[in-house]
Every structure is written in structure tokens, then in C-alpha cells.
Amino acid sequence: MTAPSPMPPALAEVVSEFAEMQGQDKLTLLLEFANELPPLPDDLEEAAMEPVPECQSPLFLHVDADDRDHVRLYFSAPAEAPTTRGFASILATGLDERSADEILAVPDDFYSELGLGALISPLRLRGMSAMLTRIKRRLAQ
Predict the structure, then answer these.
(1) For a tag site, which of 17, 67, 90, 97 has the least CB within 10 Å?
(2) Which residues does residue 76 pair with via DSSP β-bridges, in sequence order?
(3) β-strands 50-51, 72-76 pairing
């Protein structure tokens, strides 16, 4: 019997979707996620967000942990950066409105389970890791 996943159900579902895909279909799915990145709320400007310099493309994030039971995550990435947008959208889909404890329990290398290592450069994968690390750092403060 395997231990329960430390991932919130929505993130585990995303990982499962990627696991069902092979090769280039994984990239297609990542691009679909890129197109689904939620827009920023009207009262949040990119200038007020934290940059993630580890990403090869400009990416900004904002963690609203006023309610630690329903943490809100916001991302801004240009349309010309579909890989970065896709990663941000995966995190938004899987972790937005989860509790701080659930987010902090996500394995730092969960993205390796997406199976994108052979399709995406290590630098880009490091950017996804950096997004999660920064979210966790905000929540630990």
C-alpha cells in the first residue's frame, strides 16, 4: 500500500494528466495550461508583485496568505513565454485556495513527476522549482 500523496488533490490531478501523456503531447498539455493562466485581479499590479529571476522569462508572483486556510496565488507571465506561463498555471490550478500547510507539504521536486525533463531545458525546470520555493518562503514567513 502506498502512502497518500502529499499533494493537494487538484495538483495530483494535474500530475496524473501529464503522466497519461507521452512525448510531445506533454508539451501540448503544457501549452494548454499556459492559455488558462488566470488574469490578475484588477487591484493587483505586476509592479507590486515579486519577480522570480530564476525564470528565463519575466515572471512575477503574489502570495496572499491573509487567510492561511485559503491561500491565493497570482502569477503574471507574458504570452511570449508559454513554458513559464504553463508552469505558473499548473501551480495556480493545483495550489490556489489551498491551505498554507497543504502548499508547504508539496514536494519541492513534484514537477519531476510531470515528465517534462526530456522536453524542457533544466534551466526552465529550475524556474518552476523557484516559483514553488518562493511561494513556500512567503508562507513560512
Answers:
(1) 67
(2) 60
(3) unpaired
49-68 tens-digit pLDDT? 999 999 888 999 999 999 99
pTM over 0.70: yes
State pLDDT tens for residues 99-116: 999 999 999 988 889 998
d(CA 106, CA 99): 11
**Cβ(3)–Cβ(36) below 8 Å:** no
Do the beta carbons of residue 87 and residue 128 sit within 8 Å? yes
Walk me through the domains of the chain, giving residue ranges and CATH numbers.
20-39+46-140 (3.90.1010.10)
The single residue listed with the C-alpha cell 522536453 is 119
Cα–Cα dist 119/70, whole Å: 33
CB 125 within 8 A of CB 114: no
Output helix, strand, coil percentages for the chain, rounded to the nearest 5.
Answer: 50, 10, 40
- Position 141 scores a pLDDT of 85
